[in-house]
Design goal:
Elements: E1 2-5, E2 12-13, H1 18-24, E3 31-34, E4 48-56, E5 67-71, E6 74-75, H2 80-102, E7 113-122, E8 125-128
Parallel strand pairs: 1-3, 3-5
Antiparallel strand pairs: 2-6, 4-5, 4-7, 7-8
Amino acid sequence: MNIKSRGINRGECFLCDKKYIASLFKDDPIRIFFGRRKNLSDKTQKDVVAELVLRRYDVRFMDIPPDSLYLYPVQSTQGVQALREAFQTDVLPRLHEMYLQKKDCFLGGKTFGDFKIQIRLKDGGFSFA
């Protein structure tokens, strides 16, 4: 596991901390990016708070990691603590289970392709897309 992060703007926060995510994904070969939008992510969707991206290619492209989890900042509001607790106790463990289930078999025998799961903040809760 490799964790990278960038600074965030005033009035923003993440829905989990590095310590928690490190304990959850400690044995997994995944790169975790806090607050970083890569060119493969959907930059127009501001309601996306997390993205799990699994990639399989015959050839390695540049420095694109095969498995990545992107965590994006949200606006700090009064209800953000409840969202943070729900994200850490419900969403992240579910996302980790999906990662474990999909990491080796999502392509059904193919040797290349992408698989992406987005977590969106919707009506005070989370939705998987």
